Amino acid sequence: MTLHPMQSDASYVPFLLNPLARRNAPWTPGQDAILNEEGLAAARATITQWPGYAPTPLLNLRGLASELGVDALYYKDEGSRFGLGSFKALGGAYAVARLIQAQLSEKLGRDVAMDEVTSVAHPALVAGITVCCATDGNHGRSVAWGARTFGAACVIFIHATVSDNRKTAIEAYGAEVRRCEGNYDDSVRTAQETAAAEGWFVVSDTSYPGYMEVPKDVMQGYELMADEAFRALPDRPTHIFLQTGVGGMAAAVTAAAVRRWGTDRPAIVLCDPDKSACWYESFKAGKPVAVGGDLDTLMAGLACGEVSALAWEILQDHADAVMAVPDDMAVAAMCRLARPTAGDPPVVAGESATAGLVGLQAAVTNADARAELGLGGSSRVVIFGTEGDTDPELYEELVGVPGDEIRAQAG
């Protein structure tokens, strides 16, 4: 299958089984304390009432499925989510709302209902709250959007390689944006240190010792994406390929799958960028390990060198394998989705949206991976297109056509 003239040989994409995972591993009480059905119900009840909410489409890519030799391939397209262009809108903004709810309850000495937050019933109190986070782009945009929507102040920290276009997109939601030296993990530490000094509240999509509660809300918001997809599927999927940064999204989707299907859950395959392969290296070591360097992958939203502690608690048991995919194959997949064949709809997929598709492509062309994962003609695969053209200029440079033109073709 030819995706793009820049494509690497997919059979050489590193593939590793997770030695810690078991298909019959139970969903433990500790994991349920992180993500659970009650939390999903609360997130669903809140987010579905926000103006502009609509489930994003689950596309049946029959042509691409045939080319890859699988029975079905479903693509959850998050490019239209709340006008923010990515699934991150579900996590960051929801966590901001939950944090404001908790702070108002403390200040007012009573339980504050979520509709008091979403209606901005206490504007003076909320205006005194400042939320902040580190971001590669999309999460910061979601936090800034949530802060503006619910009336809080917001400061966002970006690292050296985040594009100016993404910086401008965050500022459009009223946030102050501060650029830091170093990589994403350095910006996480800067955000935490600054918040501690200023009395601000960090709304991060990664967790680390001493910081666990807010990331649970972020991940619980992400679960709504998986819930929408699973409800729309005609049959139980056999495989899910998930791109990984710190792992919050992958853990949320995996949690929803394990709780829904138990030991009949799909095979879960994680897909790291090869230049920031923290999950690959952690599964190889059998414990969380950090990947150093500048993490300079084109898949900017996945440029993370350290796994989330909460995500590790889930994925160490329930993620069956991991792959390390290269940037050129991600670009090839963007182009393939934009210029489909065999009747598939054209799709605008950003740089960080295609790692799952690249992992699938590599797995079906690698005899060992195909056999280990049981991939074949009866496989039903789900991938999550987690962003659209969140940097429109970069997207046009990589694909050769503006995202708006592709969306117009899709009707």
Categorize the overall geometry: globular
Mean pLDDT score = 94
How much of the sequence is in beta strands? Answer: 5-15%
| CATH architecture classification of the largest domain | 3-Layer(aba) Sandwich
Helix percentage range: 40-55%
Secondary-structure element order, N to C: EHHEHEHHHEHEHEHEHEHEHHEHHHEHH
**Major sheet strand order:** 1-10-9-8-11-3-2
Q: What is the straight-line distance between the termini?
A: 27 Å
- How many DSSP H or I helices? 18
CATH level-3 fold name of the largest domain: Rossmann fold
The low-pLDDT segments are 1-7
Rg, rounded, reads 20 Å
CATH class membership of the largest domain:
Alpha Beta
Number of strands: 11
Tally of domains: 2
Q: Main sheet, how many strands, which sense, barrel?
A: 7 strands, mixed
Structural class: alpha/beta
Provide structural commentary.
The protein has a 7-stranded mixed beta sheet with strand order 1-10-9-8-11-3-2, with helices on both faces. Strands 6-5-4-7 form a 4-stranded parallel beta sheet, sandwiched between helices. It has helices at 29-32, 37-47, 62-68, 88-108, 114-118, 123-127, 138-150, 164-171, 184-198, 213-232, 248-261, 278-285, 309-318, 327-338, 355-364, 367-373, 392-399, 403-410; strands at residues 15-17, 58-60, 72-77, 130-135, 153-158, 176-179, 201-202, 239-243, 267-273, 321-325, 380-385. Residues 1-7 have low confidence and may be disordered. The chain has 2 domains: 10-87 and 215-410, Rossmann fold; 88-214, Rossmann fold. Helix 2 crosses helix 10. It is globular and about 60 Å long. The chain starts with 14 loop residues before the first strand and ends with a helix. Helix 7 links the parallel strand 4 and strand 5 (153-158). With 411 residues, it is α/β, with parallel strands linked by helices. The longest helix has 21 residues, at 88-108. The chain is built from 18 helices and 11 strands.
